[in-house]
Amino acid sequence: MTKQERTKKIEAAAYKVLEAKGFKGASMLAIAREAKASNETLYAWYGDKIGLFSAMIKSNAQRVESDLLKAKGNGKAGLAALLHVGGSLLAMVTSEHAIALNRAAAGDVTGELGRALGQEGRNKVLPILVDLLKEAYGEEQDVTEHLECFLSLLLGDLQIRRAIGTVEILSSAEIKLRSERAIERLQLIFAPPNGPILNLQTP
């Protein structure tokens, strides 16, 4: 088994233990046993539990970045591409793994996991959204407010509600509708220079 394969197995075990025991109860030993790996290996690779979950946050962010870049490269540009990317982002940040990592960060009294989540999001996700907004509104346009508005319309408090268990995982139909509404309302607040470019009545 390669190190990459072992890493995936350890991460899968960590998610399973986290779901069953919560962050406080998810010991390195419990994760090692679930992964059928040695406790020494986990400590050698990750240092401690914070190091393991920080690595999982980075790994998840890399997957999100890869998926968003694929969504971005679908032959569309500007808001048309942002509609597609927004749907992918919404699905990923409300997924079981993303919510598990958010719960872990909430249980980490050191705050390190929360900082890791914020840093990875800024570094990997936001630049993709900024590029698409600049395509829609102009390369010289400061799209800071556009970005904040779009994320508020798209995500709202869904991550928090998912994390505390008041909202189930979204269906593909719910993701599509929310993404369309986010773009529709963004265009009303910040009119694209050439007018609305999306016909949201068309699949």
Which of globular, elongated, flat, extended, rod-shaped describes the shape?
A: elongated
Estimated radius of gyration: 19 Å
- The helix content, as a percent range, equals over 70%
Total count of domains: 2
CATH architecture of the largest domain: Orthogonal Bundle
The number of helical elements comes to: 10
Strand content: under 5%
Q: Which fold name fills CATH's third level, the topology of the largest domain? A: Tetracycline Repressor, domain 2
Order of helix and strand elements from N to C terminus: HHHHHHHHHH
By oligomeric state, this entry counts as single chain
Overall mean pLDDT score?
A: 90
Assigned CATH class of the largest domain: Mainly Alpha
Structural write-up:
- The protein is mainly alpha-helical and 203 residues long.
- It has two domains: 1-47, Arc Repressor Mutant, subunit A (Orthogonal Bundle), CATH 1.10.10; 61-189, Tetracycline Repressor, domain 2, CATH 1.10.357.10.
- The chain has helices spanning 3-25, 28-35, 39-46, 49-72, 78-93, 96-107, 112-137, 144-155, 158-163, 172-189.
- The longest helix is centred in the middle third of the chain and has 26 residues, at 112-137.
- The radius of gyration is 19 Å and the shape is elongated.
